[in-house]
Amino acid sequence: MDSKALAVMLIVGVIAGFLASFVVGGGGLIRYLITGIIGAFVGGFLFQASGISLGIGNPLINQIVTATIGAIIVVLLARLIA
After folding, report:
1. What's the pLDDT score for residue 1?
2. d(Cα 70, Cα 1) in Å, to the nearest integer?
3. Does the pLDDT value for residue 50 go beyond 70?
4. pLDDT at residue 21 above 80?
5. How far apart are CA 39 and CA 70, in angstroms?
6. For the chain, what is the mean pLDDT?
7. Which of 9, 11, 21, 50 is least enclosed by beta carbons within 10 angstroms?
8. Domain map (residue ranges) of the chain
9. Radius of gyration of the chain (CA)
10. Residue 40: closest CA among 9, 61, 19, 18
11. Own/partner pairs for 32-39, CB < 8 Å, 24+ apart?
12. Largest interatomic CA distance in the chain
């Protein structure tokens, strides 16, 4: 993985975590980053496993939306367990 791909992944993670915090609440920059990156994996896996395609033309926006939905799921599951 090159540095450009890593930077894009981190930016997508922060944006997704930030957007997820509006829906489920709270956190700082590190929490946004962690939940966004984990959410990207969870959202990507769930969308691919269920065959859901968002149909958004821009791949970056598609990644952000998928990661945000995954981050929301991760935060809700963490709160359910805690």
Report:
1. 64
2. 22
3. yes
4. yes
5. 4
6. 86
7. 50
8. 3-81
9. 12
10. 9
11. 35/71, 35/74, 35/75, 36/12, 36/67, 36/68, 36/71, 37/9, 37/10, 37/13, 37/67, 38/70, 38/71, 38/74, 39/13, 39/67, 39/68, 39/69, 39/70, 39/71, 39/72, 39/73, 39/74
12. 38
3-state secondary structure of 66: helix
The one-letter amino acid code at 46 reads L
* Pick from 63, 18, 11, 19: nearest CA to 41: 63
pTM, full prediction: 0.85
What the block records as the tokens of 79 is: 């709160």
Q: Reply yes or no on whether the pLDDT at 26 is more than 80.
A: no
